[in-house]
Amino acid sequence: xxxxxxxxxxxxxxxxxxxxxxxxxxxxxxxxxxxxxxxxxxxxxxxxxxxxxxxxxxxxxxxxxxxxxxxxxxxxxxxxxxxxxxxxxxxxxxxxxxxxxxxxxxxxxxxxxxxxxxxxxxxxxxxxxxxxxxxxxxxxxxxxxxxxxxxxxxxxxxxxxxxxxxxxxxxxxxxxxxxxxxxxxxxxxxxxxxxxxxxxxxxxxxxxxxxxxxxxxxxxxxxxxxxxxxxxxxxxxxxxxxxxxxxxxxxxxxxxxxxxxxxxxxxxxxxxxxxxxxxx
Length: 280
Hints:
Blueprint: E1 4-9, H1 12-22, H2 34-37, H3 42-45, H4 50-58, E2 98-99, H5 101-105, E3 112-113, E4 124-130, H6 139-158, E5 162-173, E6 176-185, H7 194-201, H8 203-214, E7 233-234, E8 244-246, H9 260-275
Parallel strand pairs: 1-6, 4-5, 4-8
Antiparallel strand pairs: 2-3, 5-6, 5-7
Helix pairs in contact: 1-4, 6-7, 6-9
């Protein structure tokens, strides 16, 4: 996109490695230091420092401490878009590799995943979540929105879709912008690894890791200048790249995410409206 400097990571680990390497140049930042020196409360940043956030990213997004804080979601097995597939039974006594976050937020905290590839559906959808939030948006609203997105995307897999998921930080100001895109789920991977919850439900992912990248991003547009004082306004996402875009959360719509019920309704409507316009 014109006047945007961009950087793309194929995993949360790759993003964490980039931040780790950038930390050697913390003293050279010219475009803000809020990722490390911000004075805002935990309702803004979450309860993790940049060091904590980087460690989680380098561990592939394993966010075990955050799971108990996630809101619980229950979505009846209704058709969002496509043909409903029967709801599978959740086994709570299976020893697996990672917590099943989709099951966790639905009320089965002991459910674990077998980390086997999912069958790749011929109905592939690429989903982007804009994780640049207005400063008025707090940790509770971010968690509600993230949990609702996880639950709705889980329902789409039951509708027969192979979901590819990207967390995208897009900000703009002064005629320039920055886009930080990270793939948090490929279309043939399980929907529920902890990394998805970390990217979508933790404010630290956006306001620690993405802030730090934007503080020193290099590109022809000098887009890092947007992080000098307010880290920019929510930027655009290229709708030609994605089937579904969950756009910014800002002062105009943040109250929709005050409760998990409101968040689910908002997210379901966004998905339905966008998919109904496309032949997927």
